[in-house]
Amino acid sequence: MKIGETYDPRKEFGKAVTEIAMENDAVVLLSADSGKSSGFGTFMEACPQRYFECGIMEQYAIGMASGMATAGNIPVFCAIAPFVTCRPYEMFRNDLGYMRQNVKVVGRNSGITYSDLGATHQSLEDFAIIRMIPGVVVLAPQDPAEIRAAVKAMIDYEGPVYMRIGNPKIPVLFEEKPFTIGKGQQLNAGTDITLISTGSMTGPALEAVKQLEAQGISVDHLGMPTVCPLDTELVRASAAKTHKVYTVEEHYVDGGLGTLVTECLSDMADTTVHRMGIPKGYATSGEYQEILSYYGLDAEGITRRILEA
């Protein structure tokens, strides 16, 4: 992968899972009537005995995955993000979290990337509700290379994990390297403000950093591919320098990364946190980039909102 090239996040996820599953017989894949859309097509043909099509019954799929984990398997269940988080939340909480099962749940077409299908298919509360389940790791890799690395880290990790990926093609932002759960990274060193981004918002945030620095604002930009547990050490060290923190995420402004950062910094004097995301309400539908612009989550919008604040 070369910096700047664009890839379908679902296909890269599917390839990464398939490569690992081909070498590890413990890995089994589950779907809710969308295996090929999740990138599982090759695996379905090569290893049909380890692919389980559960139909549109996500609650059942979570329970089935929990049972399979008890038997020593490593289930990876992938489907549309709101349907693997909101719909089976009780099963996620009790069968996976409470039982601390070694199950990996992946929500694809996350955030507003299923933009044309409206609020029912948008996932803007997944960080908030899943991070409240004790012991569940929440991941939001930021580019195609990081998706591949995060898949390996997720499967190697012993315990329940939720990972979200988008739908439109996204650019390669970084060289591929090992993914460490719970760690963020400094993407740009600065002293005036701290900007913290996660998942699909890191690409526009990088462009916004360039625009802000062209106007004389020095930005300490942190990329946060693990939403929970938050890299509190990195966040606090940056906030101690700048005292002005901005978060940006393709999620409601309440409950997700911005709220976690606010909680992390609540005892630090003279430090403010400005959260950027989707206002709490049923988001509009339409073309993806237009919706990002409408909510001020493209590079220009992020720049404008920081300058205004």
Low-confidence blocks of residues: none
Distance between the first and last residues' Cα: 37 Å
The biggest beta sheet is recorded as: 7 strands, mixed
Q: Portion of residues in helices?
A: 25-40%
Give the total of domains: 2
Count of β-strands: 14
Give a description of the structure.
The chain is an alpha/beta fold and 309 residues long. It folds into two domains: 6-171, Rossmann fold (3-Layer(aba) Sandwich), CATH 3.40.50.970; 185-303, Rossmann fold. Helix content is 38%, strand content 21%. The chain has twelve helices and 14 strands. It has helices spanning 9-23, 41-46, 58-70, 81-85, 89-98, 126-130, 144-156, 202-214, 232-242, 257-265, 288-294, 299-308, and strands at residues 6-7, 27-31, 51-53, 74-80, 104-108, 137-139, 161-164, 170-171, 185-188, 193-197, 219-223, 226-228, 244-252, 272-278. The strands form three sheets. Strands 3-2-4-5-7-6-12 form a seven-stranded mixed beta sheet, with helices on both faces. The protein has a five-stranded mixed beta sheet with strand order 9-11-10-13-14, with helices on both faces. Strand 6, helix 7 and strand 7 (161-164) form a beta-alpha-beta unit. Helix 1 packs parallel to helix 7 and helix 3 packs parallel to helix 5 (89-98). The two termini are 37 Å apart. The model has no long low-confidence stretch (mean pLDDT 95).
